[in-house]
Structure formats: structure tokens, C-alpha cells
From TrEMBL:
<keyword id="KW-0238">DNA-binding</keyword>
<dbReference type="InterPro" id="IPR001647">
    <property type="entry name" value="HTH_TetR"/>
</dbReference>
<dbReference type="InterPro" id="IPR009057">
    <property type="entry name" value="Homeodomain-like_sf"/>
</dbReference>
<dbReference type="Pfam" id="PF00440">
    <property type="entry name" value="TetR_N"/>
</dbReference>
<protein>
    <submittedName>
        <fullName>TetR/AcrR family transcriptional regulator</fullName>
    </submittedName>
</protein>
<dbReference type="InterPro" id="IPR050109">
    <property type="entry name" value="HTH-type_TetR-like_transc_reg"/>
</dbReference>
<dbReference type="InterPro" id="IPR023772">
    <property type="entry name" value="DNA-bd_HTH_TetR-type_CS"/>
</dbReference>
<feature type="DNA-binding region" description="H-T-H motif">
    <location>
        <begin position="24"/>
        <end position="43"/>
    </location>
</feature>
<feature type="domain" description="HTH tetR-type">
    <location>
        <begin position="1"/>
        <end position="61"/>
    </location>
</feature>
Amino acid sequence: MSQVETILRAATQLFAALGYDGTTTRQIAEAAGLNIATVNYHVGGKRELYLAVMKRAHEAERAMLERAVADTEGMGLADRVHLIADRYLDFYVDNPEVSALWLHRWLLDASDVTELEREYIRPLLTLVGEATGADSEMAMWTVVWCVNGFVRGGILDDKGVRRGADDRAALRRFRAYLHEVLHRALNLPGVPP
């Protein structure tokens, strides 16, 4: 693994765990097993590192959504919406650190880095809106909020035990509920699967 990859992986894990404001370049260097000068040489300072981490997260999410949209060709509206929502959920289940990165931002972490939402989120909302014909940005935000909440916090079962994305029954139950929410929010035809 290259030093840049080592640095980016360490930075991703620390920014996901502690947020931008709670992470230092020294912590990243130590986690990568390097000195600060090497980190700065390869990636730059903390801001540049954060931007590189967020860009990688965005590129992975964008690639997933572009594949999902391409896979919906020829499908009816309800099936398109479900497939895209399912792929979105699966992406965040498989990449919980990306969820953590965005949740920190939504809690006003890295508030001096203002361009990410405009550059990364807005185009993805447009992509999904155009693919589904769904004219409800709030429905898309509902998916974002629900998926991230489930991935990070899970749900409580009837005994009060927290069940997360690693619990197949909880994931299946959440997925069905997400489909139902989308059916209602977008007034989709038919019954959710």
C-alpha cells in the first residue's frame, strides 16, 4: 500500500470517529505510522487531507448511484425508486465511515469547509431526481436521514436491544419500511415489496 493510501485510510478513520475539528494532523500521522512532514509532503495539511477524504467518499457514492441509475433503465417508477434506495442503503451499510463523515458535517463539524454540500450532495440529488422523475427533494432527504440514522444507530427490538445493519432481520425490516415510506412520500403505484 502506498504512503498516500495509508495516510488517507488513517485520516478517513479518524475523521469518521472524531470529526474534522476533533482530529489533528499529528494523530493522522501517528495512525499512519509516519511523521507529520511526510503527511504534509504527500497530502498537505489537515484541510487538504479532509478534502481528499471527502472527495474519495463522494466519488465512491457517486459511482454507486450512477451504476444504480444505469441499472434502472426500462424499469417502472416504483422499481427504479426501490432499486436506487436499496443500493444507497447497501452502500452505507458497507461503508459506515462515509455515514460518520457526513453526520459530523451535519453536526456543524468543519464549518469552515463550506463547498462540499454544493459540490457533492447537490449533484447527487439531481442525479437521483432525474432518474426517478421524483419531484420531491424532501423524499430524497428523508432517505438520506433515515439510512444514516439506521446505519449509525440501528433500531431497538422489543427487548430494548439495539439492532444495527449487521443484524439481517433488522436490516430486512428497515429496508421494507424504507420502501413503504417512499411509496407514501412519492405516491407510488402498487404495494411496496
